[in-house]
Amino acid sequence: MIKSLTTAATGMQAQQTNMDVIANNLANVSTAGFKKSRAEFEDLMYQTLKEPGAVSGLNSISPTGVQTGLGVRTAAIQKDFDIGAGKITKNPLDIQIEGPGFFPIQLSDGQIGYTRDGQFKKDPSGRLVDKNGNALQPEIVIPQNANGIDIAPNGQVTVTVAGNIAPQAIGQIQVVNFVNPAGLKSMGKNVFMPSGASGLPAQGVPGQNGMGELAQGQVESSNVNIVDEMVNMITAQRSYETNSKVIQASDQMLQSTNQLR
């Protein structure tokens, strides 16, 4: 069988994966805190008919050898944690991390997840929670009689209470960073979980030890660039079509062979 049939088939499968990644990026172009992904590929094993450097005669060696590649496969899907543009909302509970870091939140199963989505709200008890009801950690509880909320760049949260002119400190927002954020496991709902590749979470005060500062009244937009994704989509589509042409050409070669008398 002509090896180009299966080789081109692996190319089509790889470009299908590439298109799936691009489609997910475009689908989340309006998702706050979303980080785009990039598919990475590697070639498969080679069929070696002659080793490079093999002896080809008296006092002579082959300078190149004869090796035929057998295709491609998806090696990784890399998360790009470049900071997205800030979107001004003027909502006092919207918070953006201007730099590295994640908000720690407690999930429904008790585990701690991490997110870049700073669109927080108050639950019935006054706790800051994300849109899925996961509480920010450590917990910040807004008093019921609070008239104003101020979140400093270093994460200090103060409120003004009716009948009291002086601001009252109610908590400290902390952020978490990882040695290798690209190794985090995406769980959906804008939540990441640590893995063996990400390293252990390092928690600290915003603006210190390399952590980003907080900005109140704005959220981080997706870091997806529509123009780049459209170009990548066109490239993936053309690569897919080219591999399909190879299969057609290989099929025609086999047909010619079968017609030999």
Shape: elongated
Number of helices: 2
**Amino- and carboxy-terminal Cα gap:** 19 Å
**How would you describe the oligomerization state of the chains in this entry?**
single chain
Helical proportion?
Answer: 10-25%
**Helix/strand/pairing category:** alpha+beta
Q: How many runs of DSSP E, i.e. beta strands?
A: 22
* Total domains: 2
Largest sheet: 3 strands, antiparallel
- The largest sheet has its strands arranged as 10-9-13
Estimated share of beta-strand residues: 25-35%
Low-confidence stretches: none
One letter per element, helices H and strands E, the order comes to HEEEEEEEEEEEEEEEEEEEEEEH
Mean pLDDT over the residues? 93
Radius of gyration: 27 Å
What is this entry, summarized?
Helices cover 22% and strands 33% of the residues. It is of the alpha+beta class.
Please provide a written account of the structure:
This protein has 261 residues and is of the alpha+beta class. It folds into 2 domains: 3-80 and 224-258, no CATH class; 86-220, no CATH class. The protein has 2 helices and 22 strands. Helix 1 packs antiparallel against helix 2 (226-258). The longest helix has 33 residues, at 226-258.
